[in-house]
Target: AzlC family ABC transporter permease
Amino acid sequence: MDTRLADFSAGVRDTLPLLLGIVPFALVAGVAGVESGLTPLQTVGMSVFIFAGASQLAAMDLLGRDAALGVVVLTAVVINLRMMMYSASIAPHFRALSTRVRAGCAYLLTDQAYALAIARYTDEDEDVRKPFYYLGVGATLWVVWQAGTVVGVVFGAGVPDAWRLEFAVPLVFLALLVPVLSSRPRIVAGLVAAAVAVLAAGLPFNAGLIVGAVVGVVAGIGAKRLGLAAGGGA
Model:
């Protein structure tokens, strides 16, 4: 087997266990798009254009609440800021590639693609023909995400109006949030962000989410510094 195909296949194989979490997430994204008032085409288009689960759900939720477009875009950007760190970390491994190939790799960048690829690329015992392993991971995630979104759209469009599914988005965000509340600063950040977002719910343009996120980050940083100053762990 060609080494490039072997690396691509290895990326596909290593991604398969992750699909247990990706598939239901994609289904919820499709349902949430329909429930927020988007057409099926708009929902699928957003999935293709953004290709970022958490920011998609946040954007759909805000659109469903008639938030200003600027707030929707800013929210998506803030949620995806971590991709800048991922890019800076993985970019040296793709330095020799053409601009077109690097742009394609950037489009496929997700938490899962970064985690699998960087672990393999930093393993000194692995001789990886870049970027084929990464493309195997990213392409698999992309195809499954889009297919799951389409199925969710079809399912959501067929659900009777009496079966309200607005609870799906908050439940997914809770599922994403709980595992990361693993230290005192993070718990402080989460609690403060939630409290401020609720209190600021009446702000114009539905900006309460942005305000809550910013205040939560500041609170988390403050809690971490106070813990370190007092000799406590994070």
